[in-house]
């Protein structure tokens, strides 16, 4: 591990930062394990979450997933948030209410740098799969895409997507002067955005980013499979959620 850090310092030409020392502890921590990335799409239901919670799998949840903890018992391994606008709106709430290890990705340091693991986010016009988050991660238009790169870094071999509906409702197609829009109904959690405006997703970029992730995972004999109840995400192979549960319950 020390040799890895030393080689990183030589490559970058600058001293290792504290956040990089924190992240290096996660390299291959789940080598060969299966991971489920639990999105917040409208197709998510509590019974599915309870079934997932009973399996011995690595799980990621995102953003304000913590709003459901008053209703069901669910213990994720990790929580991840990378949208700078979302983080501005709900930063304190994320720190107080998230479960599992909290990762926050941002292009700059935050006013408070405790209570979570920070990741440098570097957006690019064309998504490139980041194998080493000690440098940076490209979000690819979606927090789930960022999670795929983290899961890969952690050594997860097979990655499953649940609750990735990839369908977005924008209220009256109305944009504010800053490009933000209004609209609820895009998540299984009620009042998910608390009436705050948000930037609409670049669906074309997201879809291409998922394809890039799929090609990368498949090239290393892993799996990237969508087990969402409903989903408009193209190209990523589908598997029935009940079949997935049956497979891993038997294990």
Structure description:
- With 251 residues, the chain is an alpha/beta fold.
- It contains seven helices and seven strands, in the order ααβαββαββαβαβα.
- The chain has helices at 2-12, 18-24, 46-53, 84-97, 143-153, 203-219, 241-250, and strands spanning 34-38, 58-62, 78-81, 101-106, 117-120, 158-162, 223-226.
- A seven-stranded parallel beta sheet has the order 5-4-3-2-1-6-7.
- Strand 6, helix 6 and strand 7 (223-226) form a beta-alpha-beta unit.
- Helix 5 packs parallel to helix 6.
- The protein starts with a helix and ends with a helix.
SSE topology:
Blueprint: H1 2-12, H2 18-24, E1 34-38, H3 46-53, E2 58-62, E3 78-81, H4 84-97, E4 101-106, E5 117-120, H5 143-153, E6 158-162, H6 203-219, E7 223-226, H7 241-250
Parallel strand pairs: 1-2, 1-6, 2-3, 3-4, 4-5, 6-7
Task: Name a few traits of the molecule.
251 residues; alpha/beta; 7-stranded parallel sheet; 7 helices; 7 strands; 31% helix; globular
Number of helices: 7
Q: H/E order of the elements?
A: HHEHEEHEEHEHEH
Low-confidence region ranges = none
Ends distance:
33 Å
The fraction of residues in strands falls at 5-15%
Mean pLDDT score: 90
Helical amount:
25-40%
By DSSP, the count of extended strands is 7
Helix and strand content put the structural class at alpha/beta
Note the overall shape: globular
Summary, kept brief:
The protein has 251 residues and is α/β, with parallel strands linked by helices. 31% of the residues lie in helices and 13% in strands.
